[in-house]
Amino acid sequence: MSRLHVDGILNYGGTMTVRDSAVGSNAKVVRTAGASRDEAAERAQVGVITILPLETRAVQAALGLRRDRVGDLTFYRAVVDGVTVAATMTLEQGQRSAMAAYANLVEAFDPEVTVLVGIGGGIHKSVAIGDVILATEMVYYDLRKVTPSGTHRRGQTRPVPAGVGHAINTFLADLDASHQLTIVDPEGTSRSPAVHAGPIGSGEAVIADEDAVEIAFLASFNDKILAVDMEAGGLGQACHERSAASGRHHRWMVIRGISDHADQHKSDTPQQVAAWHAAQVLRRLLPYLKTKR
User: Fold this and answer.
1) Angstrom distance (rounded) from CA 254 to CA 123
2) What is the β-pairing status of strands 144-147 and 150-153?
3) What 8-state DSSP symbol labels residue 27?
4) Which residues pair with residue 43 across a beta bridge?
5) Which Pfam families match (predicted)?
6) For 144-200, what is each residue's pLDDT tens digit?
7) Domains of the chain: which residue ranges?
8) Beta-carbon neighbour count of residue 64 at 10 Å?
9) Burial group, residue 212, by CB count within 10 angstroms (0-12, 13-18, 19+)
10) CA 88, CA 289: separation in Å to the nearest integer?
């Protein structure tokens, strides 16, 4: 069989996909550093995860996000104050769905930092309904050992990454001494919620009882825990494990507007205001979260 000398592409009837290629003798492909894939222009500096529709609407309105479909998934995107943002909503409440939403966000936009934004229950006496919590640490309370003599709870802690902690500290330092923000809602009502930084508890329970064993455990574990939610544990764990797989840090943080006190008076009425306050704090935090490269 004779041999053919070919300059270019030779195909004997098969199929193939050609990317980043040039055709012809001495052809070259010149690529810009950092633009290793077509999606590079779509990478987000800040990713956002919401859980409830009212949280999603608040973030979309506060940041001016536009809807974008990727396959069967819906994302929301914009450039806000020079920061590229991509947001998504979980399929369900809870840790597992938060981890899945994070995986979807990373696959589509690979954000530098991912922020969980929405409502939560305040459990510390210093926290009022409408206030906003910036989590500096997550305490997962659902680890436990069940024995004939009773259930022994085991909390697991995870601090936010150091870079996020510095961003939170700088943001608070730029506020006045009361750490209050003036926020105007879409109807024109002005409020001045306080912004708190501290630990939050996270587990699978919707807590509507001030005497719940979960509340008592968290108080004994760390009396500075400010609030509880159902998704921060999943996001923190997902980012922690993703860092090992990717070889770089995956930063995360949690912003919770307080809609109730995790007690029997829990009501849906304050949720919209709490979600709006959390979304507005996110808007003001964006420049602090942006990484300069």
Assistant:
1) 16
2) antiparallel
3) -
4) none
5) PNP_UDP_1
6) 899 999 989 999 999 999 999 999 999 999 998 889 999 999 889 999 999 999 999
7) 44-289
8) 12
9) middle
10) 18
Task: Provide the token pair at 14.
Answer: 């098969």
E strand or H helix at 228, and its extent? strand 227-229
C-alpha distances (whole Å) from 29 to each of 20, 32, 38, 58, 183 are 7, 10, 15, 45, 51
Tokens of 119: 């409502």
Q: Which CATH architecture has domain 44-289?
A: 3-Layer(aba) Sandwich (3.40)
Residue 78 is encoded by which pair of tokens? 């914009």
Dihedral sign, Cα of residue 202, residue 205, residue 208, residue 209 = negative
The dihedral over CA atoms of 217, 198, 262, 254, expressed in degrees to the nearest 10, equals -120
Per residue in 49-66, pLDDT (tens digit) is 999 999 999 999 999 999
Which residues of the chain, if any, have pLDDT below 70? 1-41, 292-293
Report the relative pairing of strands 113-122 and 227-229 from DSSP bridges: antiparallel
- Exposure string for 98-110, b = 16+ CB within 10 A, e = fewer: bbebbebbbebbb
CB atoms inside a 10 Å sphere around CB 88: 24
- pLDDT of the residue at 33: 38
